[in-house]
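Friendly challenge for the regulars: who can give me the structure tokens for this chain first? No prize, just bragging rights.
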Amino acid sequence: MSPADEERWVRDIVARIERSRRCGRIDLARRAAELADRYDLPRPDAITWSERQRLRWGSCTPATGEIRISTRLAGVPGWVLDHVIVHELAHLVEPDHSPAFHRLVARYPLTERAIGYLQALTDQPVLGAEPPAA
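First reply, four minutes later:
Bragging rights claimed.
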């Protein structure tokens, strides 16, 4: 392993440990139950953090009632995490991204703001790159 590869590996492991620490301080089950009750959505059968969620903020399996939340969200403001949880709770009712699904998600008042935050977070690694050609 080259020194540069070793340095990247160490940074990745340290970041994973820090995310794990932050995840341990957040009670997802309690948070999901409170949001489900507040926005008249079903409670999940299980909600867990997932280190494997690299391309998505969360995922839901409606058939089992299970929700997984990316550990990448462990450091975001609570209102952003709440939006992702509400989004996944809505999938327990509407498995697709239909208009009915979006009406359920829109019950959460900070939806648009949270979407903007997540879009900015997603774009963060490419800041400073050349803008697309017009």
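Residues 1 and 7 are 10 Å apart (CA to CA). The mean pLDDT is 85. Your move, everyone else.
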